Amino acid sequence: DAMVIQNPRYQVTQFGKPVTLSCSQTLNHNVMYWYQQKSSQAPKLLFHYYDKDFNNEADTPDNFQSRRPNTSFCFLDIRSPGLGDAAMYLCATSSTGEFEQYFGPGTRLTVT
Amino acid sequence: QKEVEQNSGPLSVPEGAIASLNCTYSDRVSQSFFWYRQYSGKSPELIMSIYSNGDKEDGRFTAQLNKASQYVSLLIRDSQPSDSATYLCAVNARNTGKLIFGQGTTLQVKP
Predict the structure, then answer these.
(1) Strand A87-94 relative to strand A31-37: parallel, antiparallel, unpaired?
(2) Which of A59, A83, B25, B74 could pair covalently with B21 via S-S, beta carbons 3.0-4.6 A apart?
(3) Residue B82 to residue B80: CA distance in whole angstroms
(4) Binning pLDDT at 50, 70 and 90, where does residue B97 land?
């Protein structure tokens, strides 16, 4: 089945220790999104890629970076995680012209 | 005014009843509207999309859109305990690829 996969599902990191979250998809969608969702809040868009074109949200902290080496994979790098970065990180995909977004299972990040 | 507003609930309905979830949005340019279901600790799952005024039915789910009133709703017929979740309304932002989410309404279906 075509799907969006995120690894790891759970990640524990120490304060200030860099961490990378990964997302892959078999849907062949050209648009990939990264969201941050904290408890009882709506998903918050961090950035997205149209193909290789990177689009950062204005309020996304510089601490968050992203890479998309090919159509199928996208990475979220948190350079120096703080306690406030503990959240569920969601990857989603869509196709240009189609506005429906499909989410992966998410990565739950804990910062100690 | 928030761009997409939902009553956070919880909305509690008995099993077998109709659950009605409501959402209003502020941008008249929006043309695409979505309902996502999110179980606790899980990721959002797309359950309905609607683009035209009127009703769209899919199984026990009916989405209703009224662009003049800037209002979109989701009806769940014959509610089941397994429908207990948070329902997120999402609106396409100015017909870009980005979605604006409401805060979500928590639905509790009691056996």
Answers:
(1) antiparallel
(2) B74
(3) 5
(4) confident
Tokens for A93, please give them.
């995909």
Cβ–Cβ under 8 Å, residues B48 and B56:
yes
Reported as a single tens digit per residue, the pLDDT across A50-78 is 999 999 999 999 999 999 999 999 999 99
Residue of A nearest to B45 (CA): A103
Subunit contact B99:A50, Cβ cutoff 8 A: no
Q: How far is CA A19 from CA A45, A72, A103, in A?
A: 19, 20, 21
Q: What is the pLDDT of residues B55-93, one digit of tens each?
A: 999 999 999 999 999 999 999 999 999 999 999 999 987
Q: Contacts of residue B46 in chain A, CB cutoff 8 Å?
A: 100-103
| Least Cα separation, residue A54 to chain B (angstroms) | 13
- Please tell me which residue of chain A has the smallest CA distance to B5: A42
